[in-house]
Amino acid sequence: MLVVLTALTLSVLVWGVFQLVVSNYFLEFTIQEVHAMFVSHGLVCAVLLSAWAAFFILRSRKKFEAEIAEKEAQFDDRMAQAEKMAAIGQIAAGVAHQLNTPLGSIMLTAEMIAEEVNGNAELKEESRKIIRNANYCKGVVRNLLLYAKPQKQEFKEESVCFIIRRTVSLFDHEMKKRGIRMNMSVDCKECAVFCNGNLIEQLIFNLLQNAVDAQPNGGEISIRTIIPGDGSLKISVRDAGPGISGDVLPHIFEPFYTTKSVEKGTGLGLAIAKRIAEDHGGVIDVESAGKGSSFTVTLPARPASPTPAGAPHFHDHA
Fold this sequence. Notes:
This protein has a 5-stranded mixed sheet with strand order 2-4-5-7-6. Helix 4 packs across helix 6 (197-213). It starts with a helix and ends in a 19-residue tail after the last strand. Helices cover 58% and strands 13% of the residues. It has 3 domains: 2-73; 84-148; 156-299, Heat Shock Protein 90 (2-Layer Sandwich), CATH 3.30.565.10. By secondary structure, it is α+β, with helices and mostly antiparallel strands. A hairpin with a 5-residue loop joins strand 6 (283-287) and strand 7.
């Protein structure tokens, strides 16, 4: 439509110029006739230009309305998600209040039993199972609180290099026991970002825990920082495990989705990592083609409006 209107307008203008040339050099129209000719062509041009302007305005309006509708839908989705998280947070807080005291009592009793039954190996092992399962339940409650009921945390410029090195050191014993090699390539000169250090440490901890769990019989973990040059910072954590199957990959960041045994994970570790990245204005991506998996976190130098999903700092199995 736009092309047609433009072509018609140009045609009228060209025809008017052509008639002017003809009138001057061949037909010798009177001034009144030339004036009438220009008025008629001017009216036609005005109509065509008005039609062109109306079309342009209509198209712009439709585009604007579509953008508004999309933003409203996104806002509604965010509000629905916020309401859902608020409801889950209230439930989690209630569950934590109701369960933490009896779980603590169960763990204390089981520890006392384990200490008193030195001559009964079977009973001692059963006591340890009780302790492990109680710890798992407490971990679920803590992770659920961290995921669903954020508390405000201060953002400031932090050295991600320092955070990475500090977090990696927490896995020294576990990696040595499993025969896992750690390769670090971290630029400590240009890795400062505006963030909450405790939350970024939790994010990196969860990714490293996931990489360790993927290699129970030894392997390799690579962690590195990438500076794209646009003010952002990328943190990549790669393991040499069996990889993630195609049917699992789309659900990898969903809360409570896990392929691990009950004792090894709550299914919230990667969901929490994703939430922390997003609340810092960043994103987290995963690639797993064949053997090994790679998680890449992209953090902006300074989020436009940080809305941290902070919570008390703790570490737990992902």
